[in-house]
Amino acid sequence: MIKLPCPQQKWTNFGVPNATAVIPIKFKKVNATAIAPALIFNDVPFRSVAQVLEEAYAVKLQYPENLSDKKITADLSGGTQEENIEAIAFTAGLQVYKEGTVYYFK
What we know:
Layout: E1 9-12, E2 19-24, E3 38-45, H1 46-57, E4 60-62, E5 71-75, H2 81-91, E6 96-99, E7 102-105
InterPro entries: FecR_C
Pfam families: FecR_C
Protein name: DUF4974 domain-containing protein
């Protein structure tokens, strides 16, 4: 199934091959965690997934260096910021906790 952007959405890959995101472009005041971009990763290194999530959610992800090259495949369409970051942690076999705008993967 191909998901096409609707009006007031744009497609991006944040410069990361094999990653896609459909994000809203309508400007309105809303809590960042309420925005649910469609994020899809297909065999993407964890460091690139982290980069996309950091840009999409305006957060920082701290993770073990040995995780950088681990390949991640995930469809995070429709999830909240918290759910999506927890799903990536689960996929990587890690736990995650948050302090402010920083997520720590252990």
